[in-house]
């Protein structure tokens, strides 16, 4: 602690260096932006396949060590001591690491350690991207929040990432054959909105770099732009405004401000933990070398684990999971389906289950140590968790039975009983915003299409990686119908009464979703009506619910129709309440008066 106390003088002095601190922050942001542009050019546009492209760049040799030095100075002089030494040590370590890496490569000549992972991509590129994201995350949102309300800011952040993704996918080194702007923007939107609809074949049209960009967009879209930037901002910026804390509290459904950082950490760690375990399970379900090599199996496992948990539906196989090499691998299909279910449950459910399990483990430790008796705590499993879980199980059971009987003699003809159950379970899961397919979509029955449309429309659960109107909205609507049948004045379920505000939101979401899907279907039918109304409606439901299933229609549509699907994907990922809140303006006279009530004739 003596060393820490010695630095206290410098840290307290740093608080007085307001002008100098501002200059260092702006200079560092400029440097990281320049480095980011250099790395993007080197990876995406440079034709050189060796180390010379970036490491012999004079500007890079100046900017990279200078950035490391500035980062170290800022960590020592400008870190707020009240945030604790964790932030100080982490920032200082990162600054020292940047300098050591530069010295080891350019001064000591350690070239072998920094060989490209693929086409020029090295640890220097990775660190540059990390620094840029870190610095952007440190920027305060106060000015933006004066221009946009939280819902609008959420939509703007996604639109910005989609635009950046489209630019990256158009880089020469990202594609085997150049793609148009519409194709790039469609693919970027589909990835960020975790949809899975494709207009070009992901397996053959994109290089390893292009697939990595798509995977990154899926991960950012699944976790959420706000979650990722807020995590880095909270941890490395030392302070945050009250406005930002309010935004994050609402976004994460957190009840208190104190738990925001812990919630962000849990969301990030749980996501990576589940995706890591899922990748291992998928890898062991594959036959050795089935995709060409062990490395190909590993890449397949990582890509599909992230794509499945984020409910994206993107695949590195041309025929998706209907590819002849994995078509009959039912354990693979079940593993992917389970990841989809976990991703679709929503982070509030995960965090609630995590808290419950943590409490149980704590009690077990106390029981082994001192024989402490178990004390049941009421409300440990929240009402939201119960409703979401029950609705999810009912929909999975309904979908599995429906597809088992409807496809028994169609796409499942000649398959074993276990295979039929596996295929039916997979088909009941994937339309709930995932988009993988393990059958020929053009061969399914019309009845199955109707069931798929219904499941796509419902989608996943609130604050999850999926889309749709959400399971909670559907359950409230169904319970309200039962309430009317029973002649009750309010909805009662599990000894709870659902607030009228939730009911109003649910029916607003249902109406607006059907209005948007209907409008999109009608517009596309006017443009490309030769493909048939059912196929068009199917793709519109798939786009709005961010599913990704298609009856081989999306690549055939004209550019105007593709832009309509892009709009549906974006609006569907944002959610109906986000859309409505972004348009709303609170009236200052809400509570000053009420008009006389009237009944409208309904039947």
Features:
single chain; 603 residues; mainly alpha; Helix Hairpins; 66% helix; globular
Compose a concise summary of this entry.
The protein is mainly alpha-helical. 66% of the residues lie in helices and 1% in strands.
Give structural notes.
- The protein is mostly helical and 603 residues long.
- Among the domains are: 1-139; 476-585, Helix Hairpins.
- Helix content is 66%, strand content 1%.
- It is built from 25 helices and two strands.
- It has a two-stranded antiparallel sheet with strand order 1-2.
- A hairpin with a 2-residue loop joins strand 1 and strand 2 (496-497).
- The N and C termini lie far apart (77 Å).
- Provide the low-confidence segments as ranges: 1-16
Class from helix and strand fractions: mainly alpha
The strands making up the biggest β-sheet line up spatially as 1-2
Order of helices and strands: HHHHHHHHHHHHHHHHHHHHHEEHHHH
**Percent helix among the residues?**
55-70%
Largest sheet: 2 strands, antiparallel
Radius of gyration: 26 Å
Shape: globular
Beta-strand share of residues: under 5%
Number of strands: 2
Distance between the termini: 77 Å
Please report the number of helical segments. Answer: 25
Mean pLDDT: 79
Blueprint of the fold:
Blueprint: H1 2-14, H2 18-44, H3 52-55, H4 58-78, H5 85-107, H6 123-138, H7 142-147, H8 150-169, H9 181-192, H10 202-205, H11 208-223, H12 225-236, H13 242-251, H14 260-285, H15 294-309, H16 330-345, H17 347-370, H18 383-406, H19 417-429, H20 446-458, H21 471-486, E1 492-493, E2 496-497, H22 500-528, H23 533-544, H24 559-574, H25 576-583
Antiparallel strand pairs: 1-2
Helix pairs in contact: 2-4, 2-6, 4-5, 6-12, 8-9, 8-11, 8-25, 9-11, 9-24, 11-15, 12-14, 14-15, 14-16, 15-16, 16-19, 17-18, 18-19, 18-20, 20-23, 21-22, 22-23, 22-24, 23-24
């Amino acid at each position: 602690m003596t060393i820490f106390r010695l630095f206290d003088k410098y840290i307290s002095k740093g608080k007085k260096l307001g002008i100098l601190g501002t200059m260092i922050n702006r200079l560092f942001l400029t440097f990281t932006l320049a480095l980011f542009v250099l790395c993007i050019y080197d990876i995406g546009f440079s034709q050189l396949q060796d180390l010379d492209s970036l490491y012999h760049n004079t500007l890079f040799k100046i900017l990279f060590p200078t950035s490391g030095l500035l980062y170290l100075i800022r960590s020592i002089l400008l870190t707020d001591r009240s945030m604790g030494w964790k932030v100080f040590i982490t920032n200082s370590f990162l600054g020292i690491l940047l300098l050591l890496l530069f010295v080891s490569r350019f001064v000591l000549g350690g070239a072998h350690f920094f060989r490209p992972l693929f086409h020029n991509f090295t640890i220097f590129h990775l660190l540059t991207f990390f620094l840029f994201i870190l610095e952007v995350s440190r920027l305060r949102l106060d000015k933006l929040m004066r221009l946009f309300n939280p819902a609008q800011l959420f939509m703007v952040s996604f639109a910005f990432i989609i635009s950046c993704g489209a630019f990256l996918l158009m880089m020469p080194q990202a594609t085997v054959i150049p793609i148009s702007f519409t194709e790039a923007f469609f693919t970027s939107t589909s990835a960020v909105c975790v949809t899975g609809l494709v207009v070009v074949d992901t397996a053959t049209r994109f290089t390893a770099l292009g697939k990595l960009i798509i995977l990154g967009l899926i991960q950012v879209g699944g976790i959420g732009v706000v979650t990722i930037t807020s995590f880095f901002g909270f941890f490395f910026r030392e302070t945050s405004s009250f406005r930002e804390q309010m935004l994050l509290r609402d976004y994460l459904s957190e009840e208190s401000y104190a738990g925001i950082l812990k919630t962000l950490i849990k969301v990030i760690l749980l996501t990576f933990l589940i995706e890591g375990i899922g990748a291992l399970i998928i890898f062991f379900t594959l036959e050795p070398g089935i995709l060409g090599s062990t490395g190909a199996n590993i890449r397949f496992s990582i890509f599909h684990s992230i794509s499945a948990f984020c409910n994206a539906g993107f695949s590195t196989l041309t025929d998706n999971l209907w590819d002849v090499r994995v078509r009959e691998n039912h354990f693979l299909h079940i593993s992917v389906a389970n990841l989809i279910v976990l991703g679709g449950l929503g982070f509030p459910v995960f965090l609630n289950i995590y808290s419950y399990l943590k409490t149980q483990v704590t009690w077990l430790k106390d029981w082994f140590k001192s024989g402490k008796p178990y004390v049941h705590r009421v409300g440990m499993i929240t009402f939201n968790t119960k409703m979401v879980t029950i609705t999810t199980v009912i929909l999975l059971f309904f979908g599995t039975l429906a597809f088992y009987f409807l496809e028994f003699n169609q796409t499942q003809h000649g398959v074993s009983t276990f295979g039929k159950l596996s295929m039916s379970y997979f088909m009941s899961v994937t339309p709930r915003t995932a988009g993988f397919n393990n059958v020929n979509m053009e061969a399914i029955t019309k009845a199955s299409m109707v069931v798929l449309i219904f499941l796509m429309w419902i989608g996943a659960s609130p604050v999850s990686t999926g889309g749709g109107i959400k399971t909670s909205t559907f359950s409230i609507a169904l319970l309200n119908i039962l309430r009317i049948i029973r002649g009750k004045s309010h909805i009662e379920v599990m000894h709870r009464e659902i607030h009228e505000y939730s009911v109003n939101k649910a029916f607003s979401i249902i109406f607006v979703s059907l209005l948007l899907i209907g409008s999109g279907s009608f517009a596309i039918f006017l443009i490309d009506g030769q493909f048939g109304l059912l196929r068009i409606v199917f793709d519109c439901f798939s786009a709005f619910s961010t599913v990704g299933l298609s009856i081989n229609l999306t690549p055939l549509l004209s550019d105007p129709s593709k832009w309509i699907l892009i709009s549906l994907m974006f609006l569907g990922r944002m959610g109906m309440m986000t859309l409505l809140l972004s348009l709303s303006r609170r009236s200052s006279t809400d509570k000053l008066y009420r008009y006389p009530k009237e009944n409208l004739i309904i039947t």
